[in-house]
Amino acid sequence: MFQAIVVVIVAALVGLDQLTKWLTVVNLKGADPLVLIEGVFDLTYLENRGAAFGMMQGARWWFVAFTSVVMLALLGVLLFSRYRRYRLLNAGLILIVAGGIGNLIDRIVNGFVVDMLHFHIAAINFDFPVFNVADCYVVIGALITLFFFFFLYDEKADRRPTEERQ
Fold first, then answer.
1. Is 32 a catalytic residue?
2. 106 counts as catalytic
3. Annotated catalytic residue within 17, 115, 127, 158
4. pLDDT, tens digit, 9 for 90 and up, residues 84-109
């Protein structure tokens, strides 16, 4: 049952990511950015052929292979490891996996990742690289996972026999 719930949540999150990318392509490709907050935030169409912040442009198949291996490993941890009982960790891993799969789909199908969220603060000359919903999933999931392991997880308590933990 746990595995089915995880798969449904991941699929729903990937679907939401793909929907936002499709809407971006349909509405913004070849168009001017859609300004939502003047001088702060707009929606724009960008094809990212690299990694975060546009690094490693053109390494499509390396990204496909690396992401596939990492997503399979994280799915294994999420679905079959002793960590299944930790809800916060599960939430973080689900977000990372959904984000990774969302961007992996783009790389395989398009050869690039569609980005659309653009924060920039003109008043202080701040211009953050354009990103997408899947990137948000990965960053938030990574922060949740790091928080869990740094502040909540007790490895010593986890290694005690089950009857001692209760």
1. no
2. no
3. 115
4. 889 999 999 999 999 999 999 999 99
